[in-house]
Design a protein that fits this description.
The protein is α+β, with helices and mostly antiparallel strands. It has a domain at about 15-110. About 20% of the residues lie in helices and about 40% in strands. It contains four helices and 14 strands. It has helices at about 1-20, 195-200, 205-215, 225-235; strands spanning about 20-25, 30-35, 45, 50, 55-65, 65-75, 80-85, 90, 100, 105-110, 125-130, 135-145, 160-170, 185-190. Strands 1, 2, 3, 4, 5, 6, 7, 8, 9, 10, 11, 12, 13 and 14 form a 14-stranded mixed beta sheet that branches. A hairpin with a 3-residue loop joins strand 11 (about 125-130) and strand 12.
Length: about 240
Amino acid sequence: MRFYICRIVLGVLYLMATKVMAQVEYGYSRTIRIYAPNFKPYNDVEGSPFIPGDSVQNGWLVYGQKRVAARLRYNSYSGEVEYVEGGKVLTPVNSVAEFGIVTDDTLRFRRGFPSVATWSPIDFYQLVYDGRQTKLLKRIVSVVKTNTETMANDFGKKRFEQHEDYFIWTALAKPSIDTYVEKLSDGDMKSVVLNKKSLLNTLPQKADQINAYLTEQKIKLRSWKEFAGVLKYLDTL
């Protein structure tokens, strides 16, 4: 009897281990982690932390200089990119520098930016505008909130709440026209909100150009698209 119990325990441990590590070949070998064997690991929480949604989309992962096609999504709760292989949800153990998700507006995420607020260089940001001198970044984070109102019908119910924070990355030195090697760590990160005052406070050295452009184009900065348009203009100067 003891022998059979030992075999059962070893079998369970083996199955658990195979759900933790695996090998996948994409022209070269890399290690991945199977963090969940299904597409919806948060069944007890209302809503979803996945971007652009629970289902995976066509896209790519960047490891160093290698770009690998994959079907993926971004988990804004764990802060990890996830892709599907063999019917399982995987997240790479190797460092992913960048990834993209193909939608109507392709979503690009990068890491390696300087620390700011509570975020570090290992955290992913969505690139809203990707210029050489400035970048507009969006940090997306989902948290789990529990209803603690004892008299409510949904007392104890958990749900995801998504938060977005925006930052401007500015290169510390003007990029060379002849050679351009981008070092994200060699930049300054500042938090911004959607208004003119915040933009001017973030880029005070460009205040005259910003004011002139906003007046000429009759822009009120009512959208992040307009905000990105100002940065794009500044990158041409």
